[in-house]
């Protein structure tokens, strides 16, 4: 039984409440093109999706992106930085804190309408205060419409990459969409997801039958896998990436813009957040070793916040309440090192 609690306005109504100023829309459009140029190979820069595991409170996120903006000025000739502002949190067992979208105050009950409005306000402030536009995970495909005019990068998570609706909606997005390998790690499944997202589709979306042209910027994100015994198995190593290259090359019908982003956390690091530094260093070394590897590996996802580690409750300003993250000092050092080796 479904008990109706709050009627949610349409995405058109919500976006009309909180419109994007012309100058902010221009910033976002410029950032979109920079990100697309990396995925398409029109730019040699690396794409860096970086920020907290989940954005549970606006103030520390805005402080983080303001610092990131200053850092961006030092590395913008080598990197395209997109702050990670993830507002919906997938849960393996379906219970627990599900992110700002569902629970705008992590210590209080769900309030989706308040969450939607808070997210739009936060994403607008991110652009205004940092000059950077954000990445978010498309956990619930129908909700993407509430924020599509504010994002530069969209992620499809490991639990969602085999889902038909995620694939279909990705085909209509005009931004880079990073599709993670499923938790089981199958490369053929990942390639099939990318193929579906790059293909023209017809389906029902927000009470309409819609048609899409396909998204040529849909690409692979390697985040490690989990075996049948619950062990984390990394897939950022040279051999695994070369298997993805082979999968791209052998895809029936062909795929556009072969690209891989390495997620340095999750099952690649076993959620040992400081391992992200070592993982990035190894991948950068492999890029310098092999031209094919360098051509396809376009960047990284890194989990980072103001204070390293994590906490159960929101006590420490700028520390994650979900998965542990790198602290700011390590983040700054790592970003500068990536730029130096790019």
Q: Can you give me a brief rundown of this structure?
A:
With 342 residues, the protein is an alpha/beta fold. Helices cover 38% and strands 18% of the residues.
Report on this structure.
The chain has an eight-stranded parallel β-sheet with strand order 2-1-12-11-8-5-4-3. It has a two-stranded antiparallel ribbon with strand order 6-7. It has a single domain, classed as Aldolase class I (TIM Barrel). The mean pLDDT is 95. By secondary structure, it is of the alpha/beta class.
The helix content is 25-40%
In CATH terms, what is the fold-level topology? Answer: TIM Barrel
- In the sheet with the most strands, the strands line up as 2-1-12-11-8-5-4-3
Gyration radius, to the nearest Å? 19 Å
Class, according to the CATH hierarchy?
Alpha Beta
CATH architecture: Alpha-Beta Barrel
CATH superfamily: Aldolase class I
Overall average residue pLDDT: 95
Order of helices and strands: HHEHEHEEHEHEEEEEHEHHEEEH
Q: Supply the helix-strand structural class.
A: alpha/beta
The outline comes out as: globular
Question: What is the beta-strand fraction?
Answer: 15-25%
* Largest sheet: number of strands, sense, barrel closure: 8 strands, parallel
Give the arrangement of secondary structure elements.
Elements: H1 11-17, H2 22-40, E1 46-51, H3 58-75, E2 79-83, H4 112-130, E3 134-137, E4 151-156, H5 164-170, E5 177-180, H6 187-198, E6 201-205, E7 208-212, E8 218-222, E9 225-226, E10 232-233, H7 238-250, E11 260-263, H8 275-289, H9 291-296, E12 297-303, E13 307-310, E14 319-320, H10 328-341
Parallel strand pairs: 1-2, 1-12, 3-4, 4-5, 5-8, 8-11, 11-12, 13-14
Antiparallel strand pairs: 6-7, 9-10
